Structure of Glycosyl transferase family 1 domain-containing protein:
Amino acid sequence: MKFGFYSPYLDTFGGGERYMLTLASHLAQKNSVDIFWEDSSVKAPLARFLKIDLAKTNFVDNIFSTPIKDRFFKTRVYDLIFVLSDGSIPFSFAKKNILHFQVPFIFPNIKTSTKFKLTKYNHIVVNSNFTKKFIDRSFHIDTKVIYPPVDLDSIKSGKKEKIILSVGRFSAHQLHPKKQEILIEVFKEFYKKKPDWKLVLVGQSKKEDQKYVRRLRKLSKGWAIKIVENLPIDMLLRLYSIAPIYWHATGFGEDESNHPERMEHFGISTVEASAAGCVPLVINRGGQKEIVEDNKTGFLWETKTQLYDQTLKLIGDKTALSRLSRNAIKNSKKFSKGKFLREYEKIIFE
């Protein structure tokens, strides 16, 4: 069979690209798979950064940048085309089409042309029930939830050290900022009680993010806080394995109903931490609520005081910490790469 994949922001190397290319790589083992992107030189760094085998995929000219008449003939040769939406909905005339939303967009008014384009898609898939709520409401449709794939086989639990870990891009201007400054603020108070612990903040950063990173470093100066930019995946996996506590604050201080895009739309890093037995204490917002069951597989918090109190209580109760760690590992299996691929095979080959 012949498959095509398109993301308008392929070169951002983000969670949406990991989602799409995991499926593309799998299908390429026994089928012809084209990735629509003008610059094929992005293939090698994408494969290295995302740790995805793209050797059998073909990077070809972007057919979605061509006029609609040309696109009609070019897309028709594909058995299936997968589109990762940035909010727009492109026309595709493949035999079967899948549209995927990673972001819980709010569209107050849907054009008739958009409604027509949607009829060309056999399946509209989202990455969480949180995203589903807003996409379904906007488009008056019933989307299917297929959670992002997590490579659980590469994640192991090790001997734990006195580390609180948080993982997320360092940027104050991205769609959903990770709010690392909030974690720094809470940790400073925590450190006064537990000076033998440290906070490690790990994340991607680009040139445009350096002003924010400098601000975080200034806030952290003199405290047991380490800021690590662009850490290789192997070293991140080791941190997951030795950290007993995981913090996440995306969406803090934001209006979830009016700005759902500012929440964590799912929370892959929370699943990765859980898989390593690193107990998640995450904000009770967005997709995090689908990963963490309060006081069973971690804790959900609303305020900085709750995060502070829950963390102190947990590290003082080794029995509870051990129980939650085991439960978190077990719970992470729901988000395996294998389950992700099986769910997609059902709708692709039905």
Remarks:
- Residues 271 and 325 are 12 Å apart (CA to CA).
- The chain has a mean pLDDT of 95.
- The longest helix spans residues 318-332.
